[in-house]
Automatic annotation (TrEMBL):
Keywords: ATP-binding, Kinase, Membrane, Nucleotide-binding, Phosphoprotein, Transferase, Transmembrane, Transmembrane helix, Two-component regulatory system. PANTHER family: NITRATE/NITRITE SENSOR PROTEIN NARX-RELATED, NITRATE_NITRITE SENSOR PROTEIN NARQ. It catalyses: ATP + protein L-histidine = ADP + protein N-phospho-L-histidine. This is histidine kinase. Its EC number is 2.7.13.3. The chain crosses the membrane at residues 37-58, 64-81, 88-105, 111-129, 136-160, 180-206. It comes from Isoptericola cucumis. It comes from the Bacteria. Residues 354-454 form the Histidine kinase/HSP90-like ATPase domain. One of its GO terms (molecular function) is kinase activity. Residues 237-302 form the Signal transduction histidine kinase subgroup 3 dimerisation and phosphoacceptor domain.
Length: 458
């Protein structure tokens, strides 16, 4: 059962008293340089404002020499140079300056540039204080001192009577509130909005900075997890490729063993007849070596993983692609094979398996993520490549290709992880082929994979 949280707990949470997060500038040297320039700018503006105040007549009754007025104004603005490096110290110095100068040369503190300085100092202390408990104590003490001073000025001292007489309201009451009380309440309201507005604005800035950092950390975590998932998907796909190629290579080794035994027996009785088994051994060994090289290239740099003890049934190939159209799920799949008679049977097992898996994954994506009702699968096997074609260097001995097309649009809310397409590209890279995966300009989606065929043996 959740515990009831009192208003003091909620208030402490909002001010971040027990927060373990510390706000620091993203680029401290740059931030401190900017603060230095900001502080110097306030010094210049405060000195200029003091001179303009003298010209207006603010200091007619002030016996202090002009240089002292300039010095006091500059001293009030200079601490902003360290506003983010030592925010609580800056607040303390600035507000002590406010109290001391306000009691001795009060006209300096009412200059507009210094009023902005006092606001910025309070705002910076709340927004950048690292120790939140110390911040609450220092800011609370500063606000208490300010309002105590205001109370003394307007309620106890002669300030209210002077303002009322100056405004010509001593003998009349234009509104429903007594003029002296109205002046007091008005000044308290203005200062309340001024001081507490600065504190609340600083705390809101602190919360915004903490949210930004949390979002950045979450985004980094998501990116790292996504990269890990992709790596795991690649590992899983490569292990599956390794198992498939292992089965094919094992077949070749078995054939070599059988033919070697036959050749050994024939050598004693009919040496001429042993040529056929030896020729078969030569071809099978070459193909096995080529496939093993492909396997090692795919798995290079990866740690060995144990098998999963899966099914040992024969792996599918090109001849099994038409069976992918038999799923009774409402998708009309048309399969067409474009090849010379017997050409598809000459496609090596690993290539046929990769093309089968490509078609299988592409149709699964259509069923899961597309609005298509029809799809077409075209299998092409070409042994003769046009010598003027740019593909002749990549496919000198021909190619085997599968192309899956659909006419649908992406289904809303069904975006996948991309792992299936990543697996397709891994297979293509294994065999040194090319892939064309993406939306069609006329609508729908295309997945086309073309793999090079090995040299045809007689």
């Amino acid at each position: 059962m959740p515990q009831h949280r009192g208003w003091t707990t909620r208030l402490a949470d909002w001010w971040g008293i027990d927060a373990d997060w510390v706000r620091v500038p993203a680029d401290p040297p740059r931030a401190f340089r900017n603060d230095a320039w900001l502080g110097l700018a306030f010094v210049v503006v405060s000195v200029v404002g003091t001179e303009l105040g003298r010209s207006i007549g603010y200091f007619e009754d002030e016996p202090a020499p002009p240089w002292l007025l300039y010095l006091l104004a500059a001293a009030g603005a200079a601490p902003l140079v360290w506003r983010r490096r030592y925010p609580l110290v800056v607040l303390s110095v600035v507000y002590v300056h406010f109290l001391v100068v306000g009691l001795t040369v009060p006209m300096v503190t009412i200059l507009a540039p210094l009023q902005v300085v006092y606001f910025v100092a309070l705002f910076s202390a709340v927004a950048w204080a690292r120790d939140r408990q110390a911040m609450v104590l220092v800011v609370g003490a500063a606000l208490f001192a300010m309002f105590a001073w205001l109370t003394w000025q307007f309620a106890v001292g002669a300030g209210v009577e002077g303002i009322v007489e100056q405004m010509g309201l001593a003998d009349e009451q234009p509104g429903s509130v007594n003029p002296a009380l109205a002046v007091t309440l008005y000044n308290l309201l203005v200062n309340f909005a001024y001081f507490y507005g600065a504190a609340v604005a600083g705390q809101l800035m602190w919360h915004a900075a903490r949210r930004r950092e949390r979002l950045a950390v979450q985004a980094e975590t998501i990116e790292r997890q996504t990269a890990e998932l992709q790596r795991q998907a690649v590992v899983t796909e490569r292990l599956r490729i390794a198992r498939e190629l292992h089965d094919v290579v094992a077949h070749h080794v078995s054939v070599i063993g059988i033919q070697a035994a036959a050749a050994r027996r024939l050598l004693a009785r009919d040496p001429g007849a042993a040529a056929a088994p030896l020729e078969t051994i030569e071809g099978e060994s070459r193909e096995a070596v080529a496939q093993m090289r492909s396997l090692l290239g795919t798995l290079r740099g990866m740690d060995d993983e144990p098998g999963d003890g899966g099914s040992r049934a024969p792996e599918p190939g090109l001849a099994d692609i038409p069976g992918l159209a038999d799923a009774a799920d409402g998708l009309d799949v048309q399969v067409r094979v474009v090849a010379d008679p017997g050409a598809a049977d000459g496609v090596p097992g690993p290539l046929g398996l990769s093309l089968y898996r490509t078609a299988q994954e592409a149709l699964a994506n259509v069923r899961r993520h597309s609005t298509a009702r029809r799809a077409s699968v075209v299998v092409r096997v070409e042994r003769e490549v046009d010598r003027g074609s740019p593909d002749v260097e990549r496919f000198p001995h021909g190619y085997a290709e599968v192309e899956v097309l659909d006419d649908g649009r992406p289904r809303s809310g069904s975006s996948g992880t991309g792992m299936g397409l990543l697996g397709i590209r891994e297979r293509v890279a294994t065999h040194g082929g090319v892939a064309d995966v993406g939306p069609r300009t006329t609508g729908g989606y295309r997945v086309r994979v073309r793999l090079p065929l090995p040299e045809e043996r007689p």
